[in-house]
What we know:
disordered N terminus, 2 domains
Amino acid sequence: MKIVDLRCCSTCPHGDRCTLPPGHDTGHNHRGCDCNAGNEPVEGDVATILAASGDHVAQFFSFSHLPPHLQAVSAPFAALAAGIVRDLPRNPERTVALRKLLEAKDAAVRALVAK
C-alpha cells in the first residue's frame, strides 16, 4: 500500500493531486494510488517521508520487518502517519496526532495476534 498522494492520473478518483505529468499513459492501472486495491504493502515512499519528518515517534510506523499478515494491519497506519507528516505543520499537536495513531496501530496489531 502506498500513501494517497501518489496519484496516478486524472481518471483516478484522487486525480487532482496526480504526480505524473499531464498526458501520461492512463493504462497503468492506477499504480501508486490507493484506489488500486489489492497491492501488497510497499514501505518505500512512506518510510522516506517518515524518516525525513524529524519526529521521534515516526520511526515506530515502519513495518517492513513484520511478517506479511502484520504488515497488512500496520501499513495503513504508516500511510496515514506519512500523510499527517506531509500535510500538517510540525508542532506539538502533530506529535500528539502521531502518538495517538501509534497507539491505535499497536492496538490493531494486538487485536490480530490476541488469543
